[in-house]
Amino acid sequence: MANAHVIENLSRVVTCGAxxxxxxxxxxxxxxxxxxxxxxxxDGRVAFVGARRDLPADYSNASRVDGKGRVLTPGxxxxxxxxxxxxxxAEEFAMRLAGASYEEIAAQGGGILSSTRAVRGSDDTTLxxxxxxxxxxxxxxxxFVAEGKSGYGLNLKDELRQLHAIKAAGEQADxxxxxxCLAAHSLPAExxxxxxxxxxxxxxxxxxxLPAAARNGLAQRADVFCEQGVFTEGETRAVAQAAExxxxxxxxxxxxxxxxxxxAVAAQVGAVSADHLEFIDDAGARAMADAGTCAVLLPGxxxxxxxxxxxxxxxxxxxxxxxxxxxDFNPGSSPVANPAFVMNLAVMxxxxxxxxxxxxxxxxxxxxxxLPAGEYGAITAGSRAAFALWDVxxxxxxxxxxxxxxxxxLSCPGWRS
Length: 417
Ligand code: NIG
Ligand code: FE
Known about the structure:
Blueprint: E1 4-14, E2 32-33, E3 37-42, E4 45-51, E5 63-74, E6 76-78, H1 90-97, H2 102-107, H3 112-120, H4 124-139, E7 143-149, H5 156-172, E8 176-184, H6 195-214, E9 221-225, H7 233-245, E10 249-254, H8 262-268, E11 273-276, H9 282-291, E12 294-297, H10 299-304, H11 313-318, E13 323-325, H12 339-349, H13 354-360, H14 363-368, E14 386-390, E15 407-411
Parallel strand pairs: 1-5, 6-7, 7-8, 8-9, 9-10, 10-11, 11-12, 12-13
Antiparallel strand pairs: 1-2, 1-3, 3-4, 5-14, 14-15
Helix pairs in contact: 4-5, 5-6, 6-7, 8-9
Bound molecules: N-(iminomethyl)-L-glutamic acid and fe (iii) ion (FE).
Residues 82, 111-112, 115, 225, 253, 256, 301, 328, 330-334 line the site of N-(iminomethyl)-L-glutamic acid.
């Protein structure tokens, strides 16, 4: 059989179910295969998962891949990242360690605006090379699908440059990307100072940047940073509604630093997710549950910003929301490219079990991105042949070996086509 592979010599295959989101108690049932399990792949897609003795005979000539006695999970899905940046912001990290807050640094023109100046000043080659480098940082930790946001361009030309860079970088890093236009990340410096200019920028986002981003599928989604001092509830709604009219899915940075009502807006506009949620209240969470809006928690940023309030994952899971985790990899609030470390934070601070953390970084993250059920984030017939092979004895150890990289990506030819 041509282009057929059998991954064997595995201790456990963690399927993460059949591809639909895992909600409530189901989040702890990861559909684990033991007893000499193997996975057969044909033309880049999973064709068989089960005991080696049950492998169909037509795979006898397929090429063999040695699983080294390890645990196989789906390739990880990172459903919230900001990878199109060209330089680190370690000087701000030092300022924060010395006592300055994220918001104070932003108010002085640092933060998002500092990354914006760097992106605007970069050439295309550099921007794509740095974005590829950033995606590879995730790829080395088992991520095969990354959502990537613009949001450091904040004008038509540079927002589009970022989205193109993410697309090209995904191809170079052998990753599947989902691209999100985050032109409403911050008010650019040249539009600050009076309400008229502020309104003008929002018009630019709605009338020019989002339509251009939506053209030819360059971006599939739009995002808004709904936060005190950034964009209001009303502005968030206006941008979200414009995005929907263009056929873009909507996601919102909500309730990160204060309770501002972003989660309720997300539910109202039928957003696919609301992300961060450290300050969400029960009404917002209930509205999201009713609307089917996923909750994406980003404890890497809570950690780096040294916040004393963590998102209450336990409560959101128990309320029946589809809960996912992501790195939020970015040069400011989360220079964290290691999902296993984020899973550790979720277990230590957000009330997850290790199994729930893994479900949140695979099948539920795929749901947050509205990827077709079963294609990514699960190991079932028809799944893309992109896996993570872990040097552990049990999947609960993934969130346990804090900060180590015990993961090796494993994919079969044709998995992206
Ligand atoms: O998800 N909250 C807003 N945006 C990012 C941070 C971006 C930055 O600081 O560059 C976040 O935390
Ligand atoms: Fe973010």
